[in-house]
Amino acid sequence: MFLKNWWYVAGWSHQVTPGEIVARTIVGDSIILYRAGSGGIAAPRDLCCHRFAPLSRGRIEGDDIRCMYHGLKFSASGACVEIPSTDKIPAGVAVRSYPVLEQDRWIWVWMGDPARADPALIPRAIGHGDPAYVVNTGELHYDANYQLIHDNLLDLTHLSYVHEKTLGRNNSAWGRTQPDFTPLDHGVRVKRWLRDTPAASYAPMPDGTKVDQWSACDFVVPGVFLLRSSGYPVGTAERFPDGPAGLEPLYETVTSQAVTPVTETSTIYYYSGGQPARQAAEAKLRLQIEMFGVAFREDKDMIEAQQKIIDASGGDAMMTLSFDRSVAQFRRLMAKLIEADGSASR
Amino acid sequence: MFLKNWWYVAGWSHQVTPGEIVARTIVGDSIILYRAGSGGIAAPRDLCCHRFAPLSRGRIEGDDIRCMYHGLKFSASGACVEIPSTDKIPAGVAVRSYPVLEQDRWIWVWMGDPARADPALIPRAIGHGDPAYVVNTGELHYDANYQLIHDNLLDLTHLSYVHEKTLGRNNSAWGRTQPDFTPLDHGVRVKRWLRDTPAASYAPMPDGTKVDQWSACDFVVPGVFLLRSSGYPVGTAERFPDGPAGLEPLYETVTSQAVTPVTETSTIYYYSGGQPARQAAEAKLRLQIEMFGVAFREDKDMIEAQQKIIDASGGDAMMTLSFDRSVAQFRRLMAKLIEADGSASR
Amino acid sequence: MFLKNWWYVAGWSHQVTPGEIVARTIVGDSIILYRAGSGGIAAPRDLCCHRFAPLSRGRIEGDDIRCMYHGLKFSASGACVEIPSTDKIPAGVAVRSYPVLEQDRWIWVWMGDPARADPALIPRAIGHGDPAYVVNTGELHYDANYQLIHDNLLDLTHLSYVHEKTLGRNNSAWGRTQPDFTPLDHGVRVKRWLRDTPAASYAPMPDGTKVDQWSACDFVVPGVFLLRSSGYPVGTAERFPDGPAGLEPLYETVTSQAVTPVTETSTIYYYSGGQPARQAAEAKLRLQIEMFGVAFREDKDMIEAQQKIIDASGGDAMMTLSFDRSVAQFRRLMAKLIEADGSASR
Questions:
Q1: Among candidates C272, C255, C277, which has minimal Cα distance to C134?
Q2: I want to staple C186 with a disulfide (CB 3.0 to 4.6 A). Which of B49, B184, B297, C221 is the partner?
Q3: Does B313 touch chain A (CB under 8 A)?
């Protein structure tokens, strides 16, 4: 089950270059992305309405796309503008075209009813295209349902176990802390102090430095994870238990991550990792994005194994324990939106 | 859905050599082909009736085939003639055997009720085994339903797009011409002039020669494509719009192609390419069959992509446009025969 | 359909070493095996009850196993003994644990109701761990249903065909002899003389020696094959048609084989091959286990091909001929047990 009436990240802006057709499947629907002659991105369905040949094997002609099976040509909005052997184009010969926008270096496509495509629903990625930040990017394919990846991102206790050797830094602090939790209109906000903990290896600090680390994360529909982590001198958490508002941190790291369902059992995951330009050192930035790559593969291994077990045994009997509050809340929110969506098919 | 009560091409005569067992699956049924000691081909089901072991792992013994699991031996007609541990062969111990014929270098197997196997239904391949022609052969496996390959062969407008760089010769003439169309008892006949068009690269003409090209194609049940193409001086089409009957062409090329369903989603395609012996040059003949190989892979890429889209989305909403007349007619004919067949199973 | 309430071989004792987690799927259920600190084997389900993460990716901690997704820890009996972020362990947080025993170098796991796990049901492997015998071991994975492997082992006529070049020694004696057959409580007993036959190549005899060979095989639930073969001077069978009880053989060879269903379409097969210590020569013993490896791959090729045919065509119409008495008897016995089991699911 997918939420159809929402914006999904379809890739990085730099992935769609003039003259190239990029094929994507999002929430089960296959589309292509190409830059029309005018520079904007068109996002028609990857299917010629005539005999269901793929437009991803087509040819860009100015703003249009020509199907290279029998030569039908369609405008960026999906209208058929040419059938080679005839001058008469019958009514109804058209391909579906999806609303598409570029914002914060991500391409966003609205997979539902175009009339409901409200750009205000698109969340802002942190630091993407902002000169105050330096940001690197990556992506990862999962053979798993998107909700398992949501669950993973919504409950960071797993850092102490899945990422014991990487992000978890060999301590059980993530596992033992219950974070502060606030529901949002279209998501949840999760905040927490980790006290007297090693700074991230990619933070601009001498290795082994202990800090109080504040992390504030928004996880929003349809699966976008926006996290700022900041280090402060040990003792800060004691003095400011509700958060370090207004204090200057020793350092800050940021990441934005988008979980885009491909099918019910495959997902693509676009992520960035960055730091403020004023503190950014090339080597630490590279270490950050590389560690993300390693750590997210650890998630992938665990989640794909979990998916196989669910496939084999059904997952209905999964348990929600006390530390799964944000997991449960976000699942309820998605379920409510999918129901309202009326798109609870597939 | 398959038409069971018809002859299908099971391969080239030269593919079944003495002492070798050849396994084939046709319209979903697995059979073996082997030359009995007497030279004729036997075509039993690839399944020992005892414990369903494959006879393709058996041993030819004279006219008979022995199952190499428990040693049961069957005659070319499928009767069990030996059970090693007993002298008594119970009634009903037999394997199904299919009517088989060799004609025009093709092996034809009747996949339905043997009582209805009428050899007169087998079409004649063009030039196969005829000393007046020199013919080369090839074959190609498709991961696609046979009907998509029928559609492809019945509508040659695709030559301008799928084969733009090969058979289409970079012009849109195929795409823009509507052919003449005649229903046949068991097929359709499609004829057309292409005016002032480059001769095929493999025609015995200086490269770049322009001709009026006449093509006359029969596409007959269960999926046999028989095409003669002839080149004439430019202007001939103008003078003989209904065809060049009786005129001597500058050259002729011929091809016979058989589409044999393996399963609902896989198909094998046997094809020849040839020219009259009097005009045939070795280099041009080789070019012809090689270009067929390249071009048919272009079809395969397109059709397999089309099959995937149909699998993912259902193909019921495919459109029939004005230039799809022969496609639609042949689909109706097959549907009618399959219904009459009473074999609309699987 | 599986018999759940029975002991199955889950592997060799030496395959589960301290500190290592071994994953197994048996009759469709995935479990892990690990040696608790105390040395005994624990066999919990390979599934953390919380979010269905695999315990096979967990960490052994003394007698316990910790899930490395969110850190829950379980005792060898499956009780949850730690949830990192809380001191309160809710009722019902536990993983299923299976009864497990080691006997005769095999690990036996009871896949059904623990209350019914009676160790007396476990058959004794021949010579495993017995100083009077030297035994080598092997294993083989099949992409086939376990019943096809039972059928194969229950009817040794196939030695003359499947193993014509290996165990069958190029003669049709196995194929032509009907054995003596006795039903057992939980299996069948099959005995036979092969007269004036070449001794096995791995017997301690000059190559080409003819013997009268006596073989006595028990095949018992849930799929354990226990065979002793002995060679006697030619003529012995004539004098002792009912068997050589009490006579000293020229040599003896033994084998124990366990067929363990993985899923409905995959199976693992654990086998040994051995000889009495007093006659054992290293080269012959090696030849024996190597020939078993080669021969069992011949079975695997045949049975996997048979499975594909059954998958494609259904196997309901398989025939039971006069020499299939033990096959039919054992199938009935299994069907009766599965029905009594009440586990005729999956």
A1: C277
A2: C221
A3: yes
